[in-house]
Amino acid sequence: MYNVTLIPGDGIGPSISESTQRIIASTGIQISWDVQEAGINAIEKYKDPLPQQVIDSISRNKIALKGPLTTPVGTGFRSINVALRKEFDLFINLRPAKSFIGVKATFKDVDLIMFRENTEEFYAGIEHYIDAKKSAAETIGVVTRAGCERIVRAAFEYSRKHGRKQVTIVHKANILKYTGGLFLEVGRKVAQEFPEIQCNDKIIDNMAMQLVLNPHQFDVIVTTNLFGDILSDLCSGLVGGLGLAPGANIGYDAALFEAVHGSAPDIAGQNLANPCAMALAGAMMLDYLGEIEASNKIQRAIADVIMEGVYVTRDLNPEKHVGTIEMTDAIVKTIEKM
Length: 338
Ligand code: NAD
Hints:
The protein is α/β, with parallel strands linked by helices. It has helices at 13-26, 40-46, 52-61, 80-87, 145-161, 179-191, 204-213, 225-238, 276-288, 292-308, 324-337, and strands at 2-7, 31-35, 63-66, 92-98, 111-117, 127-129, 137-139, 166-171, 198-203, 220-223, 246-250, 255-259. A hairpin with a 4-residue loop joins strand 11 (246-250) and strand 12. Helix 5 (145-161) packs parallel to helix 6. The site of nicotinamide-adenine-dinucleotide has 20 residues, from loops.
């Protein structure tokens, strides 16, 4: 039995969270869910988008599954994602991009893993206008040796554990000679400790083009925060968009798993949401917990249901589709037959 914090979120969050709980339960893994409210729901109840009890729950359980949260535009509401990353020093943003047979996409058989550094550089929030007239603005991107080392090491350790063959370090060290240069220097040094894994490096602009021309030449990718932000969405696009994209934010002491997409207010409450991205985040969580077989079952069942193409949500087949609940039923039945 595992204790896991569940933040169902808002919009489509509660319905895909429920799907994910059912799908995980069908593998036989027992989880005691500590359900917590954050975001808009928490403001209504507790006047705080990130109440202390959410932090306390994750501190206790060390592991969380999160549904999407609406971030209102133009108010002072801080991003819950950024706040949680900071609070628990979740320095790894892990985003797989994998093809599913039956999903329209530019490429087949893509299987990429992106390691994005999640705490440093231009996302650290060191920015300001240089004068009262706002005539110019400045953002400072600090990259530390320790920060580079831990993200690159995480990428190589993951590759070793999962039998991956190659890690590509992505940077802009030709122009950003200090921040980019440090990341590349540290990356190459860490790579020497993993001689069985090939290591190469690419400059970010060339990398973007190479991914679009032939993603099959890559395996695991590791990069700094801003480049990782952009490239991981590019990789999702290669396999058919965000609807099937899970993600994880991982630190030394805690990990938080979620779908990459948002709260989709346009389809909330209509039984239209595709439950797969969040269920795949659930599978990543099981993998992290060492429940490899259960994780593989969920991934295989989702792949089978999508390939069969009968019990799929509207985003996967606008002409002939079922609802969130019915697609979840099909995934659960497939797992139960395994
Ligand atoms: P979105 O990802 O919510 O929706 C974009 C489009 O994709 C919409 O048409 C939506 O209907 C569709 N879509 C998304 N998920 C789907 C699913 N599972 N099944 C079927 N269709 C799906 O992006 P948005 O509209 O830009 O953002 C809505 C809200 O979500 C915003 O407040 C934003 O800040 C928030 N958001 C939260 C997270 C998070 O909590 N991790 C991530 C991204 C956006």
